[in-house]
Amino acid sequence: MIKLIINADDFGYSRAVNYGILDAHKLGILTSATLMTNMPGAEHAAKLAKENPSLGVGVHLVLTCGKPLLKDHKTIVNEKGDFKKVNFYKDDFQVDLEEVYKEWKAQIERFLSLGLVPTHLDSHHHINSFGNLYEVFLKLAKEYNLPVRNNIKKQVYDISKDFKCTNFFAGELNKEMVNIIYIEKNFKAYESVEIMCHPGYLDNFLLNSSSFTHLRLVELEMLIDKKVNEDIKSSENIKLVSYREL
User: pLDDT digit string (tens) for 139-167?
Assistant: First the structure.
């Protein structure tokens, strides 16, 4: 039996994204989401999460989108006070890890202040796996005793030895990934698998601030597809779960 987590990143990005994630859960096979506490839709996402407790919700730690929660950062923001873009982290980079720790801790604490209990930790743009930022990420996971996304290369750090995570992480949603034959054939060696996705509807804020727009609608359609739902939910080899059930 494969425990399958289908997690939507970017919960809290905007109201339209939030509603898309909620529909993917209520009408489809989405089981989990991770919330960006620094974005405009964070409080709305928290309200929806409380109204729909069957959706597992974790923290989507942010370092490359929007503004930080804390002021006076020096190495992780640009001249406008916004987070530096992900391209900054793709080459050799230097940031103050203590700044990252304080900011990410503030994001977790804001999540808690919204009245939610986190199921796990991951990060926007997989920034937790860049350079030595994984050290801060895992320090916080240990501090809050939380499972983590399995997106750090084993040669860098084998997180499965010290942290609860899925056996396999699929970092991209496509039609193949939600095909029952593909899942049962390619994931049968794993006890647990996470598939990452980004379903959502569109609003002006998203269209003006993100490069990932209309594909969110495509992903939403895949997740609520009638045949996909019938196949996966009736399979004797797959159990849809959130990080709570790992």
Answer: 999 999 999 999 999 999 999 999 999 99
**Which residues are CB-contacts of 99 (< 8 A; sequence separation ≥ 6)?**
73, 74, 75, 76
Which amino acids are annotated as binding site for Mg(2+), given as ranges? Answer: 60, 124
- 226: CB partners within 8 A, 6+ apart: none
What CATH class has 2-245? alpha beta
Give CA 233 to chain center in angstroms: 22
Query: pTM to 2 decimals?
Result: 0.96
List binding-site positions. Answer: 60, 124
Q: Which distant-in-sequence residues (6+ apart) come within 8 Å of 23 by Cβ?
A: 199, 220, 224
Most distant CA pair in the chain: distance in Å?
Answer: 54
